[in-house]
Write a structure and sequence with these properties.
Length: 280
């Protein structure tokens, strides 16, 4: 995979978007890979090697989004209070336009599932299929079992629910760092923790249930993959999102045993096999 940087001008700033690409022939179809919240495409070498072997006729492009991985290193100042999903999708759209990528299958993990969903809406002519791996689902904590789920369900009815959630983000990520729940491949400093909070603030305002209904057609369908051992987003939340997909669209739901949330990084063989199947 070749390292590339895309200088993207959007609104009042220029973002140097970091990517990895394998280009055989620009006329061939593309697979676009977008990473999870506390993740980077640099950790997906095994996945890319599998895809290179399994799908020799596909070009591959992976991108670290604003606030993630190498893109964060190249753009250390994030002035925004929050980074909306629509903004991230606009960055990806710009890359697709400037690189003249007309035929692609977009695949996003977790946080980037929401970004991929928005990209498929904004780039209907270019995106032929959508793969959502352990995707973010609006209000997913309300799907947790027992009193915890009941608490978050009640909180979701509160008129200031987003403000309450946003106020707790810095503490939440500091605690996650202390408990080693964040990606262990990353050295977490204050700048990176702050970026996580700003990315999460943006995704909290994105309604996956409403957005997915905006897709009225997509030639190769919408496909979900999640794991039995996902400790982040409950399977019931993923099933609920699946049922929001219009019946007129081809769709599949895959549930893998002994698989957790970080599927690209920790289960690359599962991910590459699934990707090969849905794009074929």
């Amino acid at each position: 995979m070749e390292r590339v940087t895309f200088p993207i001008r959007l609104k009042d700033e220029t973002i140097d978007l970091f990517g990895l690409q394998l280009k055989h022939d620009k006329e061939k179809p593309w697979i676009i890979i977008l990473p999870g919240l506390d993740d980077s495409i640099l950790f997906y070498n095994r996945l890319f090697e599998n895809l290179r072997k399994d799908l020799p006729n596909w070009n591959i492009l992976a991108l670290d989004l604003k606030g993630q991985g190498e893109t964060l290193k190249q753009n250390t100042k994030i002035k925004d209070l929050k980074v909306p999903i629509t903004y991230q999708a606009s960055l990806v759209k710009k890359v697709l336009e400037e690189q003249q990528i007309e035929n692609c299958f977009v695949i996003g993990l977790s946080y980037a599932g929401a970004v991929s969903l928005k990209v498929s809406i904004e780039c209907r002519e270019r995106v032929k299929g959508l793969g959502l791996i352990a995707p973010y689902v609006s209000n997913f904590k309300a799907f947790k079992k027992g009193l915890q789920g009941l608490y978050y369900h009640m909180l979701s009815k509160h008129p200031a629910k987003r403000a309450i959630a946003m106020m707790g983000l810095p503490f939440y990520f500091s605690l996650a760092k202390y408990e080693n729940r964040l990606n262990q491949n990353i050295l977490w400093d204050d700048m990176k923790l702050s970026a996580l909070s700003k990315l999460t603030m943006g995704v909290l305002e994105f309604d996956t249930n409403e957005e997915i209904k905006k897709i009225d057609s997509i030639p190769k369908g919408i496909h979900l993959l999640c794991g039995f051992d996902d400790k982040v987003i409950p399977i019931t939340a993923h099933k609920n999102l699946y049922h929001q997909i219009p019946d007129s669209i081809e769709k599949t739901f895959s549930l893998e045993e002994n698989v957790g949330h970080r599927i690209f990084e920790e289960h690359p063989d599962v991910a590459s096999h699934w990707i090969s199947k849905i794009v074929s």
